[in-house]
Design goal:
The complex is a heterodimer.
Chain A lengths: L8 E8 L2 E8 L4 H8 L18 E4 L2 E4 L12 E3 L12 H8 L9 H16 L21 H7 L10 H15 L11 H8 L1
Parallel strand pairs in A: 1-5
Antiparallel strand pairs in A: 1-2, 3-4, 3-5
Helix pairs in contact in A: 2-5, 3-5
Chain B lengths: L4 E4 L3 H9 L4 E4 L5 H6 L7 E4 L8 E3 L5 E4 L4 H6 L1 H6 L1 H9 L3 H6 L2 H6 L50 H7 L3 E6 L2 E6 H4 L18 E7 L8 E7 L7 E12 L2 E10 L6 E2 L1 H7 L6 H12 L10 H22 L1
Parallel strand pairs in B: 1-3, 2-3
Antiparallel strand pairs in B: 4-5, 5-8, 6-7, 6-8, 9-10, 10-11, 11-12
Helix pairs in contact in B: 5-8, 10-11, 11-12
Classes of the chains: A alpha+beta, B alpha+beta.
């Protein structure tokens, strides 16, 4: 049976930073190219375009993803947040503020991807997700603190060719600290374990 | 990139029917490998069938004490799942050792099994490659092969399978479930990947048009004492040059049960049966661990630039089993 003809383009609606954008796309268009070339959302950067550098990191349904390997047509119906959408109006996201406070960048090209990734890293850790740096991944071991080693491993999908890593790790640590719920009185200083228990 | 049609499917039979009607179609999961290969022209599908919305995203306990993992479960969700971390910690570690947080959020279990080799000749369409263009030759054998296979390769192809997840799945005797137009089927992991021989372009025993629907992990109490260890050329976010999944049950100093599988040394995740046989029923000592590694690696065939992998894997076997045996005593 001959395959039915299938169009190579579609009109799609993307939900980006709370706004709906309807646009026709060639199916070959990546989400990265749709953001930058079609919607003028140029905060998301194109680095390697091969999923190897993390410069194009955005949040899809709240989870970090590389937009260069995400086809735009396959992103229809999902909630997309780019660097342009993380602040609350004029109030910077705590991760943005931490990168500013601690000079978590040099040239700045990888920074939007670093910040989107870091926002997700803090949430993933709070949700009790282990990483390759986690000594004991068993849930009964509890959540281990977000140490510098944990941050380096969890952020390893974002390359910085200026080598601003030292400050990036400090910025993520500061933002993570600020994101912790106020101490609930258990007094053990291990808020992460409480976060795990709540999952 | 070739132009292509795109369809999003919501039920398994619809997906299988669409693919069956178009031999140039491919299933699209997370796209972390397929989209990359389409950009470079290695893959040129005429149509993508997006399976991400199929109802295959659950991880469930099976009545016999194993786990059933849906094909569209993401790597992230697999590694974060409490039952996986508790009962098969080596699998969670293997998944976490692969790729980056971003890619693990996108990538799916089904796609992980079907990802292609990262051999530089396979991914460069200007070069010959028997896997990409059957009969065109294998430049890796005379060329750049420091990260190529030492076990089970052939004169036609020395590429390695890049999966970390698959190494742990091999160790735990996973079974792959699939659907075709003729109904469902399953393949034990040991039969899922085909030997290289003179057909390196044929990678799996899946029937044409089959859609992977999930994986079953049989119950394996030994897997609760499992680990994954990966060696690579930088500290994180790189493919392995050698990796190992291991599980060990020692009773009164004697190896009661052991599981060992190697990554980045063969065209498929490599179950180390010879090492397991050498160990089972014998003493859990460093000498026995080294002898078991040697038993497995006796079959190794090296090229001028990848002989180091024999030493690397030997050391990994000893280190892994030593760690696991110390843990078991604790």
């Amino acid at each position: 049976m001959a395959p039915a003809p299938s169009p190579t383009y579609s009109a799609i609606t993307l939900n980006i930073n709370g706004e709906k954008h309807t646009l026709p796309v060639d199916h070959r268009t990546t989400l990265l190219d749709a953001l930058r070339e079609r919607l003028d959302l140029t905060g998301t950067k194109k680095g390697c375009d091969q999923g190897q550098c993390g410069a194009c990191t955005v949040l899809i349904d709240g989870r970090r993803a590389v937009s260069c390997l995400q086809l735009a047509v396959a992103a229809e119906g999902r909630v997309i947040t780019t660097i342009e959408g993380v602040a609350e109006g004029e109030d910077l996201h705590p991760v943005q503020q931490a990168f500013l406070d601690l000079d978590g960048y040099q040239c700045g090209y990888c920074t939007p991807g670093q910040i989107c990734s870091a926002i997700a890293v803090i949430e993933e850790h709070a949700a009790g997700w282990p990483s390759a740096a986690t000594q004991d991944v068993r849930p009964e071991a509890g959540v281990q603190p977000l140490t510098a080693e944990e941050i380096r491993e969890r952020m390893s999908g974002n390359l910085c060719r200026c080598g601003a890593y030292v400050s990036i790790v400090e910025a993520v640590a500061q933002a993570a600290e600020a994101a912790q719920p106020p101490s609930g009185g258990s007094g053990d200083g291990n808020g992460a374990t409480e976060a795990e228990a709540a999952v | 990139m070739r132009e292509f049609g795109y369809e999003r499917v919501h039920d398994v039979s619809g997906a299988v029917a669409l693919l069956g009607a178009d031999p140039d179609a491919r299933y699209l999961g997370g796209g972390t490998n397929l989209v990359d290969l389409m950009k470079t022209g290695v893959e040129r599908p005429a149509r993508l069938i997006d399976v991400r919305d199929l109802p295959l995203d659950q991880i469930e306990a099976t009545p016999d004490g194993g786990l059933r993992i849906g094909a569209t479960v993401t790597n992230s969700d697999l590694a974060a799942h409490p039952d996986v971390r508790s009962r098969y910690p080596g699998l969670a570690q293997a998944v976490l050792a692969g790729a980056s947080g971003q890619l693990r959020n996108m990538a799916t279990v089904g796609g992980n099994l079907l990802q292609r080799t990262r051999c530089g000749y396979f991914t460069d369409t200007a070069k010959p490659c028997n896997k990409r263009v059957p009969g065109s030759g294998c430049p890796a054998i005379e060329g750049e092969h420091h990260n190529h296979a030492i076990l089970g390769a052939s004169e036609h192809c020395v590429a390695t399978h890049p999966s970390d997840m698959g190494v742990a799945l091999t160790a735990f005797d996973a079974v792959v479930h699939y659907e075709t137009a003729d109904g469902p089927g399953e393949l034990p992991f040991a039969e899922f990947y085909l030997p290289v021989g003179d057909t390196p372009h044929l990678e799996t025993a899946l029937p044409p048009g089959a859609l992977i629907t999930g994986i079953t992990l049989p119950p394996a109490p030994v897997a609760a004492h499992s680990r994954y260890r990966k060696v690579r050329e930088r500290a994180s976010y790189a493919f392995a040059i050698g990796s190992i999944a291991g599980a060990l049950d020692v009773r009164d100093g004697v190896v009661h049960e052991v599981r060992l599988a190697f990554g980045a040394v063969a065209s498929r995740p490599w179950r180390a049966h010879a090492a397991e046989r050498a160990l089972t029923g014998g003493p859990a000592t460093g000498e026995a661990f080294a002898a078991a590694a040697d038993a497995e690696l006796a079959a190794a065939e090296t090229l001028p630039h990848n002989g180091y992998k024999v030493t690397l894997m030997r050391n990994l076997v000893v280190a892994m089993l030593t760690e696991l045996s110390e843990e078991a005593v604790r």
